[in-house]
């Protein structure tokens, strides 16, 4: 038994989780590797070869690394749970006219729950993943912090983790840059992983084409939403479209109609099958309402708290004032923000610290 105890490491077969397991093993933990089978191509309507974290090649890569270092590795099948919760929510959100972020939902409700359940069964005190993030503990509160490598920082997708999950989570890659991780993999002999291209696609959407995925999951959807209306921000009808679920806030290309000038999707009204178009400046918003929030750093938010708010993963963030209102949060931007999309995550930062986050209900 290691003096540092047992730790369950989520292993996708990619470079980040491989280096995570390697680091923890070398630090003296008794590592147990686990690979979660969350989906398959057949369920998504693809006949192509599986790629990414759920492919046979990736599972074999994870298992081989465990063999190399002499620790146990297990594969668990959570496809039913994943599909019922994450994929159904993904489809339902688009049908509601919103743009979901399934990775946040999966982290919060599926992966951490599955990991901690197995960790308890295997007597592991901690779990670890290859996310680029850090954790901290201050004033009796656990919270996530930004990683050193801001280009790879994944704190944005971890805002939903509750206190008990953060308390048992370790992110060894938080202090490292991606080039350093690649060099470590190369030095350890995993040159194939060091050169392996990264995927930024949603894991269950083949070819990153969510529209085709929606049609496969609901074959009648296209007929149900056909004949929608394009309108401008003043309410003038501009033409017809093929259904509101196939558009996202900020979209400019692929509208299917030429308007003589660049037009952007500024709003989606599911009830009337209306897609509102405007100029790029019409995407600017001065605030939003956020619900389903999870606060990490504080037991309760101070009144009129000023934080930096990110409305999407690659967003640099904007200074904002947060106010609680009937169980939700009103967010007032100090300078207008472009492309606020209902369904996406809003994450609030105090310096590098994740104060919390929530789901964007509507823009203001």
What does this structure look like?
With 364 residues, the protein is an alpha/beta fold. The chain folds into three domains: 6-130 and 172-207, Rossmann fold (3-Layer(aba) Sandwich); 225-278, Adenine nucleotide alpha hydrolases-like domains (SH3 type barrels, Roll), CATH 2.30.30; 284-363, Elongation Factor Tu (Ef-tu), domain 3 (Beta Barrel), CATH 2.40.30.10. Helices cover 27% and strands 30% of the residues. The protein is built from ten helices and 17 strands. The protein has helices at 15-27, 41-44, 56-69, 79-95, 102-121, 163-167, 178-187, 191-194, 210-217, 221-225; strands spanning 6-10, 30-37, 73-77, 126-128, 134-138, 141-145, 169-170, 228-232, 237-241, 264-269, 274-278, 284-295, 305-310, 318-325, 328-338, 345-350, 353-363. A hairpin with a 2-residue loop joins β14 and β15 (328-338). It is globular. The termini are far apart. Mean pLDDT is 91; it is low at 46-52.
By CATH, the architecture of the largest domain is named: 3-Layer(aba) Sandwich
Specify Rg, calculated over alpha carbons: 22 Å
Give the overall shape, derived from the CA principal axes: globular
Structural class based on helices, strands and sheet pairing: alpha/beta
Count of DSSP H/I helices: 10
Main CATH class of the largest domain? Alpha Beta
Number of domains: 3
Query: What is the β-strand count?
Result: 17
Q: Report the CATH superfamily of the largest domain.
A: HUPs
What is the succession of H and E elements? EHEHHEHHEEEHEHHHHEEEEEEEEEE
Strand order across the largest sheet:
12-15-14-13-16-17
Q: What is the arithmetic mean of pLDDT?
A: 91
What oligomeric state do the depicted chains represent?
Answer: single chain
């Amino acid at each position: 038994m290691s003096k540092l105890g047992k730790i369950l490491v989520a292993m996708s077969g990619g470079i980040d989780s491989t280096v995570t397991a390697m680091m923890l093993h070398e630090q003296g933990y008794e590592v147990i590797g686990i690979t979660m089978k969350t989906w398959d191509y057949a369920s998504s309507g693809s006949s192509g070869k599986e790629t990414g974290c759920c492919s046979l090649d990736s599972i074999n890569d994870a298992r081989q690394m465990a063999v190399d270092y002499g620790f146990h590795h297990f594969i668990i099948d959570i496809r039913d749970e994943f599909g019922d919760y994450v994929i159904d929510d993904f489809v339902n959100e688009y049908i509601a006219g919103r743009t979901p972020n399934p990775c946040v939902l999966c982290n919060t409700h599926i992966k951490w729950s599955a990991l901690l359940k197995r960790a308890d069964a295997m007597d592991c005190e901690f779990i670890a993943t290859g996310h680029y993030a850090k954790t901290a503990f201050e004033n009796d509160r656990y919270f996530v912090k930004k990683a050193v490598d801001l280009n790879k920082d994944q704190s944005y997708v971890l805002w939903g983790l509750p206190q008990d999950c953060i308390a048992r989570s370790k992110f060894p890659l938080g202090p490292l840059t991606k080039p350093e991780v690649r060099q470590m993999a190369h030095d350890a002999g995993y040159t194939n992983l060091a050169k392996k291209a990264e995927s930024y696609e949603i894991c269950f959407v083949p070819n990153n084409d969510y529209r085709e995925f929606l049609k496969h999951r609901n074959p009648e959807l296209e007929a149900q939403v056909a004949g929608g209306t394009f309108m401008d921000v003043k309410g003038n009808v501009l033409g017809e479209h093929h259904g509101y679920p196939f558009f996202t806030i900020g979209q400019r290309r692929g509208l299917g109609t030429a308007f003589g000038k660049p037009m952007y999707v500024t709003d989606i009204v599911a009830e009337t099958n209306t897609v509102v178009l405007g100029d790029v400046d019409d995407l600017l918003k001065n605030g939003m309402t956020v619900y389903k929030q999870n606060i990490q750093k504080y037991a309760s938010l101070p009144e009129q708290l000023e934080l930096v708010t990110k409305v999407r993963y690659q967003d640099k963030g904007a200074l904002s004032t947060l106010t609680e209102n009937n169980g939700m949060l009103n967010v007032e931007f100090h300078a207008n923000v472009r492309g606020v999309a209902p369904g996406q995550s809003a994450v609030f930062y105090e310096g590098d610290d994740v104060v919390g986050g929530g789901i964007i209900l509507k823009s203001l």
